[in-house]
Structure formats: C-alpha cells, structure tokens
From TrEMBL:
UniProt keywords, alphabetically: Aminopeptidase, Hydrolase, Manganese, Protease
Database matches in CDD domains: Peptidase_M17
Pfam family, one: Peptidase_M17
Family (UniProt): Belongs to the peptidase M17 family.
Organism: Algoriphagus limi
Protein known as: Leucyl aminopeptidase family protein
Amino acid sequence: MKFQFQPKKINQESLIVFPVFENQREEFLKEKFPNLTFPSTLFSGKKDTTYTFPSEENLIMLLGLGEDPSYKEIEVAFRRILSKNGDMVKEQVILDFPDSFTTSQIEAALVGLGLGSYQADFFKKTKKNDFQKLKVGINHPSPESKKAIHRAEKILAAKIEAFRMVDLPPNILTPEYLADWAKELAKSQELKVQVFDTKKAKKEGLEAFLAVARGSVKEPRFIILEYRHPDAFKHVGLVGKGVTFDTGGLNIKTQGMHYMKSDMGGAAAVLAATQVIASLKLPVNLTTVVPAVENAVDQHAYLPSEVIGSHSGKSIEIVDTDAEGRLILADGLSYLNQKYKPDHLIDFATLTGSAVGTFGYECAALFSNDDKLSEQIQQAGMAIGEKSWPLPIWKEYAKEMDSEIADIRNYHGKPIAGAITAATFLQAFTNDHPSWAHLDVAGVAFGDSEFSKSKTGTAFGVGLLLNLIENHL
C-alpha cells in the first residue's frame, strides 16, 4: 500500500471516499456534489453510516463520522473500508478529506485504512484480498498533511507487526523468532541489539527467567534493544512479557489453551513501539527488554514448591507454575533497572485473568508508584483509544506474597486481588525505582473484533507508548 499526497491522476474504477461530519453534512455535500440531492434518510452523516453510489467511471463512498469522532472512532471507520468492502477496491482509493480535517484525524484515517488490509491468513492457499500494490491518494489543502502521511506510514507498519506477532502460531513465533525480529529491526533502524541464549542468561544471573524455560525444547532468548538519540530528553525503559506459548506448566491450564499463543502480547507492544519510535527518530533514549520463553511441560519443567533464584538476588517460592509471566518480568525489570537505570520503567504483560474480571475487554489495569506517570499513561492512552485505569498497590497487598521458605512467593493462592498481588510481586523486583508502571493488558491485547472470525491481536500499547513518549513525558 502506497500513500500519495494530492495525486494528479485518478484511475478508472477507483473508490473515492468522502468523510463527512454530521454537523457539516449539508454544506459539504452541496460543495462536492452541487447537482445531486442526498435526503438525510439516505445519508445522515451519523457515526457508522455510509452511502455508496457510482459516478462516471468511479465509485463514490460517503462515510459518516458523527459530529466529534475520537481518534479511535476514525481509525475504526476507515478500517472497515478495506476489511468489509475490499471487493469494491481495484487499484486505487482516493480519500477526499474536508478542509476541517486535522492532521491527527488524517493520521487516524490512514492508519485505519491500512489496518483494514490486514488478514491473519498466513497459511491459506487462497487469500481473500491483496492490497500490497494499492495506491491511496490523499486530497487535503494543507501541506501539513504530508507529515501526517509520513507518521501514518510508520505507525501502520508497527501496528501490523504487532498484529502479526500475536497472531502467528507458536510453532512459528518462538523465542528465537522474536530474537531474529529484533535483530532485523536493529539493522534497519541502526539500533544496538543483544540476545542472551541460555548460557549467557545463566551467566547474567537470570535464574527466574531460565526456570520458566526449562520445560520447553524451544530455547529461551533474553532480548535487549537500545535506541539512542543525540537530543534525548529522557531515558525510558520498557519490558514486555514474551511467553510465546503458555501451557500453564505443571499447573496445566484446563481451558482456553488454544489462545495462549497471545501470551506475548506485552512483548509485541514494546517491540512494535520501539520500531515506530525509532523510525520517527523521536528525541528519547529507549531501552527495551523482552524475556522470551515458552512455558511447556517435560521432565525438566520447574515444579510447584520449588525455590528458585532471580537476577535481583531474591529467592522465589513457586506456588503455581502458571504464574510464570511475573517470573520472567521480574528478571527483565531487575536487569533493565540495574544495568541501564532509566528515568521511567514501564512493563506491559498479559498477566492475569483478574484484570479481565475487573475491566473486561475495554481497559488495561494500571499500577504505578508514580502518580504523575500514572496520569500521563492514562491521558496518552485515552487520546488514542487505548484505555487504562489505576488500581492500588498498597503495602498491605504485598503481605499476601510473603513466603515461609523464601524471600517471596509467586502466587498467593487465593481467588481475590489477583492483578494487584501480581503487581506487588513485580514491584519487589524494581529495586525501589521511583517511576515504575505496570500495565496488565490481558483483556485488551488479544480479543474478538468485527474484523475477524476469531480472536486476534489488537496492537494495544503501541499507540499509547508513542503518544506517551512524544507528548507527555
């Protein structure tokens, strides 16, 4: 797909899309179609309304956006064009934006249109549509629109990568695959990359990380990406949970295991965010850590009641092997904090069913010891439709993780406060970092949508992190 600002030629059989604000409907339609009449019963301009009709050699689509659509609403509206009406499209789509469209709205529209081309049909012999060669023309009077096009291309590419990472099956997307992906990104964006294999991870003291990996024939990879900018104003550290498949270990899952390829949604978010931040050359220093493992079962698998070590030096009693994500994150947080000392430390993880029980599939659970950072994360996500909401991490909850035999246990064994106690466990491995935040994205990184027959990746966190780093920190 190729975006072009104000194309000189409109091909035959092109789809020409006119976005219409409800409160500007009459004025806009009279200007664009002076010889046609559109009764409000035919096309009102309300949110989620469309009207399509032929005009000479092309097809016209009026796309209703309502009066004051959000960034996410615009993105979704434009995603429907290719996802649901792809058969109408030949070689070219023209987006004829009203003058009142802002650059942010144009960005949302272009990202949404591009996302509509995505299909998780990686292994099908016959694919539904192929929009790789599609030409997209953008008509808008402001030269600033060119900047929106450039940004949209970078954001779209990163979100598509996040989709792919979560949607690929676990026999393809392994810890080694994620490591190779990071290496390729480092080449294309001139980043520094380090990948620890088992031997190197053991040397670095990543014992909790290695314990989870013991039961799988797929070798673990501890991935570190460094993006540096000469005009950086902050150093941000990101950690993403990279469990490429989660059986639950010896505490094996009894339902829903088919979807556990998505247990690396946190890794997808931070890796794709690193891609877009580097490609836009934002003035920030960024260090991204992804502990990538498969939590499987064999004779070497770690056992409930084992006591294992960790990078921080704390001993951990294993109560439940299905509470594995917090173990690899513990080593990731400890390593990143001790080796790089970032100003802000943020982790993303599909961590607990408790977060889903609290917020459903609309919102991530947010935990932080820095009220300002917490507010900035909420604001950054709300602006682009990636919501998060804070839950407490009071010291009383930390007592739930006390162990008789070790410094801490990985699960409190109770059907209450699961997301909160998991967050307090993670906090114990931040070495009292003054600006840490944890986002439990179990309910929002992977789910049902109108764009797929089955659950798929959402790229949740990519836009949030971009907006946070670009406009809030």
